[in-house]
Amino acid sequence: MRNLQDVVLHKIIYNSLDDGRLLNVCWDMLMMRNQESMKKWAAVFLIIAIVIGIAMIPQLNEYGAEGAMTAAENDFMYEKSIHILVMLLMGFGFLMVFVRKYGYTSVTVTYLAVALSLPLYMLIRPYLWGPAADISIANISMLLFAEFAAASLLIAIGGTLGRVNTHQYLLIGALFTPLYALNEWILFSGAVIPAGAFLDTAGSITIHAFGAYFALGMIIMLASKKEREIEVETSKRSNEFALLGSAALWVFWPSFCAALVSVDKIPLVAINTILALCGATIATYVFSILIRGKIEVADIANASLAGGVAIGASVANVTPGWSMLIGLIAGAISVFGYTIIQPRLQKATGGVDTCGVHNLHGMPGVFGGIIALGLVASPSWQLAGVIISVIFAITMGILVGFIASRLGKKETLYDDKEEFIVPD
Amino acid sequence: MRNLQDVVLHKIIYNSLDDGRLLNVCWDMLMMRNQESMKKWAAVFLIIAIVIGIAMIPQLNEYGAEGAMTAAENDFMYEKSIHILVMLLMGFGFLMVFVRKYGYTSVTVTYLAVALSLPLYMLIRPYLWGPAADISIANISMLLFAEFAAASLLIAIGGTLGRVNTHQYLLIGALFTPLYALNEWILFSGAVIPAGAFLDTAGSITIHAFGAYFALGMIIMLASKKEREIEVETSKRSNEFALLGSAALWVFWPSFCAALVSVDKIPLVAINTILALCGATIATYVFSILIRGKIEVADIANASLAGGVAIGASVANVTPGWSMLIGLIAGAISVFGYTIIQPRLQKATGGVDTCGVHNLHGMPGVFGGIIALGLVASPSWQLAGVIISVIFAITMGILVGFIASRLGKKETLYDDKEEFIVPD
Amino acid sequence: MRNLQDVVLHKIIYNSLDDGRLLNVCWDMLMMRNQESMKKWAAVFLIIAIVIGIAMIPQLNEYGAEGAMTAAENDFMYEKSIHILVMLLMGFGFLMVFVRKYGYTSVTVTYLAVALSLPLYMLIRPYLWGPAADISIANISMLLFAEFAAASLLIAIGGTLGRVNTHQYLLIGALFTPLYALNEWILFSGAVIPAGAFLDTAGSITIHAFGAYFALGMIIMLASKKEREIEVETSKRSNEFALLGSAALWVFWPSFCAALVSVDKIPLVAINTILALCGATIATYVFSILIRGKIEVADIANASLAGGVAIGASVANVTPGWSMLIGLIAGAISVFGYTIIQPRLQKATGGVDTCGVHNLHGMPGVFGGIIALGLVASPSWQLAGVIISVIFAITMGILVGFIASRLGKKETLYDDKEEFIVPD
After folding, report:
1. Contacts of A277 (CB under 8 A, 6+ apart)
2. Are B104 and B416 in contact (CB under 8 A)?
């Protein structure tokens, strides 16, 4: 099928099987001897995946750990964890398909980022948290925490979409995941900020702002003259796929917000989330027209979701009417971001924020974290958590962006054909 | 990104911030002084959304109301409410993407209709129902009722798709929602028809037929010579998105039907719904071929769902074999509608039913309501409910269609470019 | 709508209504008198569907059967049964849309295969299993068993995609479903293999390998010179829809694996499934590059899922680290299949495996079944189950392929236009 005979039977496979060349490839790569960087990196990530798998074997297999959740609690959370998986692969993945010639890479990078960060996070967390890690095969909660890490990684990737190679995204994922886990540990473990002092029920700061400001740091380091001169092309088809991804995020967002709240608060949290999304959707329509004169469909696909981002911190602590108003403001902030702030920020940083993650996850996330100042016992710890997260994210984004920039250069921006077999 | 620099920084935003012109715009619009109707209407809907948000603040915040559902009941219903959200945004939304040049508007209008009708319904219901409203943040049921209103609105919109402007759809939504709530109250509150006398478990009449006949009323009032001369263009791409929307409706339909039944009836209702859909799918294939000679993919996307529409009224009161047969008949009715009845109806009304909602939701809905005649204690109340709903829907559709027709005229039918920034 | 006036009002409908010609058509067809085979077959399947519906009436209506599941158990399983429906219609359905000119048929055949096999399986099972059938409207489990049959059928169809007519697929479905039910009964009822001796929790052998080797049998019988000369065309659009289908399968796969396990094992099974998918996804990326030099997006869409196929048998009996490693191996096997084995197999069988179901479901399924050899009390019964299933599947595939080959010939391969009304 698909003309496989032509592309298949490539020498390398026979060689690797016959002469043990696969091991040679890996060795060459470690010694930096081979120039075929796609293959070298592929081999690196194979080894990393095998190591993660083996390292996990002694972990995660204590069945019936103390503090196990009940069957019903597990099932409620299972349901939400599947919904969040939909958001990751179908939501974030297809929202990024708006770049016309880059759809294959957008989805593939989403697959790979999820496939790497989920097991990596599960491996790391017990070392950071010790007995409090809540990592056991009797509880589904470990999966949820890992999915939140993957969500934040996908946000970070969205900022640099189309300008680095696939293996660089994998490397970014391998570095981002432990840094995300570290920041989460600072905010919630009690070791730095007192336990319970930082309110961020559904990750306005922890997940959204952290990913977006990490992206901003990477954008600064990866900025190039070339990228500012090339327009990101879209098409009807690519934008319709983006709308589909957006819809998948919209409808499952209540599960993102309700995943970790106590069971009796689920109705409130679900209704608050939906009203915040409703508010943001209307505000997006309104401000897209008021500012641009016409509706930009990318605003609808993205800024409509800002209500979900902003309500995250306070979603279990406000009432429905306030949620609608928070959503309205968040949608307005996001459209202002796409229209007014992004061009200026691009001048300031010298780089392009491809998906506008600063507009969708950065500013609405910080807005959400700041709303919570009025709801917590100690506003100063809340503020500290926001500031620590943003500064840590930018700094680490700069560092990771620097490392990634050393490891290859994408020649044809916003285009699959460099790395993929593309039909005419 | 996306060439924002060109379209951004539009004067209006600076002016609105600097000179308070946003308020001027609103005032001008109320005074009918300004001709830029898109902006005027955007401002109107911003104000409406803010008012809804503020009006909700004193509502919906009594936590732990009497008659609160258990955690498990809430979670069962939460699950179904998310599934119905998928049906609204991904299902109805993408089913309407079949119009080739109108995909942006189809999805955006879906977003806006949902974003307006959910909070509006939640606001209205307590005034209509009083203490029986079952509206409390301790119960997820309020969300379900609101989602049913949104579904019915999307059906009504489908009939006029492509021929009115976005702000007219919003206005239709603002008027439809209270009228839907009123009809629902007539059927179920006990104030008019005795409580429990009208059987319509999953809304064959209440949701589907009401929306479809409301559409018919609007179609009559919005009919124009132009629309009858212009063909609705489709493409492979647009029809494949429609199939995706259809599949989203098919697979989550059991949750639509099972959302409000007692927990012990969920298996029966789920199986009945699926068998009705199976029957309708086979009948659609058969009659599409028998009548047209070849398969029309729009039949598959639409009429396959007619089993879900028709089984709605009696889904908790029949057995699986009967459900399959009801589905077979409903699929046949729907294909007869698309092929034989619609052309005649368009001659009679002078207008076009873009999505064929009369074929998918109108006739199969009435068929479903009438089947229930054989299952209720008092067939006359059942019949009364059907007749009241259909007549009320047509009448109110005519009224709302008249109002909408006064408020603008879409120049380029079935095309996004009038209101959206569209890539070449 | 859609220019219905032109295609509608076709004589046949008036004739069938006026002269009772519909009955004539059916009679002619039974007598093999009429040459319009699409219409003949449509009538046949209408009759089959009616017969199934009527035959079901006395069945499945004993409410409150003994051994009824609790409300919570039913709801846990309901949730998973809906997720599996998503996998069937949106997952398998759109994964098969990768054939550029064949998207309408791919989705329509998916609809029809599901619509026929679900009720047919429900009808058959009680006759095979007797009182142990676990078929009652008090339990949702009957729906799950039927969905597994539909999944296996869709796999079988994927192998011959694009080369037979729609009615042949329906006939294949009508013959496949009882044969699948028979094989399942051999493996699990205790009548042949001792109850509990064969380990295949989520159907690596029962569902995946059976469907794939059945496809292989059909491919042999349906093979033609023409098909080996025609390339299966894809496009950006068609591959992006395939990625969407793939994502729908990926994210809901945990529910496929967890559907039938005891409630306390759901967290383990969900985590194991996801880690197996993560492993396969990374391995797919790696081996696609190592073997082909560039990434083939069809590998990503398909082979990434091989982890889910392979973990099926042992998913409730291994730990997370092992699941990741099993997934890595399964992904590698699948890419080896697409690149190295498929061209050779096509030479051997003379036919084309359109979707590469042998690579995704066949070899990874057998691999999964064989892993379980190390986990069962009696490896010889496990091995017997694997061998029986594969041989029975191939043999029956050959038989059904022979029958299907007698009943028509598709003229234009991999193209909708022969049977569908297609816009220009």
Report:
1. A250, A253, A304, A305, A307, A308, A327, B115
2. yes
Of A86, A241, A419, the CB nearest to C294: A419
**Interface partners of A (3+ CB pairs, < 8 Å)?**
B, C
Number of neighbouring beta carbons within 10 Å of residue C230: 15
- Distance in Å, alpha carbon of B249 to nearest chain A alpha carbon: 14
- pLDDT tens digit string along B209-257? 999 999 999 999 999 888 888 989 999 999 999 999 999 999 999 999 9
Residues making up chain A, counted from first to last: 424
For residue B340, the SS3 value is helix
Beta bridge partners of C296: A421
Instruction: Determine, for residues B322 and C57 on separate chains, whether the beta-carbon distance falls below 8 Å.
Output: yes
**Distance between CA C390 and CA B304 in Å, rounded?**
35
Instruction: Report the range of poorest mean pLDDT among A145-154, C131-140, C263-272.
Output: C131-140
For residues C52-57, average pLDDT: 92
d(CA C133, CA C141): 10
**Rounded to the nearest 5°, which phi and psi values hold at B295?**
-85, 130
Percentage of chain B with pLDDT > 70?
88
Mutate to test the interface with C, among A1, A69, A123 (most CBs of C within 10 A): A1
Q: Report which of A123, A116, A105, A118 is spatially closest to residue A46, judged by C-alpha positions.
A: A116
Q: Which of A382-391, C98-107, C408-417 has the lowest mean pLDDT?
A: C408-417
- Per the CB < 8 Å rule, is A79 touching B75? yes
Say yes or no to pLDDT of C6 above 70: no
pLDDT > 80? residue C66: no
Q: Enumerate residues 6+ apart whose C-beta is below 8 A from A173.
A: A112, A113, A116, A117, A120, A153, A157
User: Which SS3 state, helix, strand or coil, does residue A386 take?
Assistant: helix
pLDDT of A144 reads 95
Q: Does B137 sit within 8 Å of A239, measured CB to CB?
A: no
Number of inter-chain CB pairs under 8 A, B vs C: 244
Q: To probe the interface with C, which of B274, B335, B336 has the most C CB atoms within 10 Å?
A: B274
Q: Which chains touch C (3 or more CB pairs under 8 A)?
A: A, B
C13 contacts in chain B (CB < 8 Å): 290-291, 336, 339-340
pLDDT beyond 50 at A376: yes
Residues C53, B282: C-beta atoms closer than 8 Å: no
Of C399, B82, B209, give the one whose Cα is nearest residue A247: B82
A42/C285 CB distance under 8 A: yes
Q: Which among C234, C240, C326, C334 is the top mutation candidate for probing chain A, defined by the most A β-carbons within 10 Å of its own β-carbon?
A: C240
DSSP β-ladder status, A420-421 and C295-296: parallel
Please answer yes or no on whether A294 and B4 come within 8 Å at the CB atom: no
The yes-or-no verdict on residue B15 having pLDDT over 90 is no
Among A9, A56, A71, select the one facing C320 at the smallest CB separation.
Answer: A56
Q: What is the 3-state secondary structure (H, E, C) of A91-141?
A: HHHHHHHHCCCCHHHHHHHHHHHHHHHHHHHHHHHHHHHHHHHCCCCCCCH
Cα–Cα distance for residue pair B129/C152, rounded to 1 Å: 49
B337 or B64, greater pLDDT: B337
CA angle A318, A322, A324 (to 5 degrees): 120
Residue among A205, A250, A277 at smallest CA distance from A83: A250
B2, B61, B90 ranked by CB distance to A247: nearest: B90
Q: Which residue of C has its CA nearest to A87?
A: C251
Lowest mean per-residue pLDDT among A160-174, A220-234, B307-321 = A220-234
The CA angle C231-C232-C234, to the nearest 5 degrees, is 125
